[in-house]
């Protein structure tokens, strides 16, 4: 009986450290990305919206199967050099953009700041 309890304790500790390590890694990774973005220059370049996409994830909660969904919005811009940059946007910013829009994209590292559409004559 002593051996079984010791095995359970060891497995519990391993699982605990794996979960704690994962959370710690996610926190450190998020802070590191935030810091890199803050250290990057804020750039404004001429760009074209080449694609938009949404990623919807659904979650079921509890025994009564309450559903909850979250939507993430992404826009890909093409700059003059031909390089493409994809940014995560808020829903209201995403909704204001259309494919083939041309204008001034402002970003800092991997952080989207704004897009000002050129006026059409």
TrEMBL record:
**Keywords tagged on the record:** Membrane, Transmembrane, Transmembrane helix
Q: Which InterPro entries match?
A: DUF2500
Gene3D superfamilies recorded for this chain? 2.40.50.660
Keyword Membrane in annotation: yes
Kindly list the residue ranges recorded as spanning the membrane: 12-32
Name of this chain's protein: DUF2500 domain-containing protein
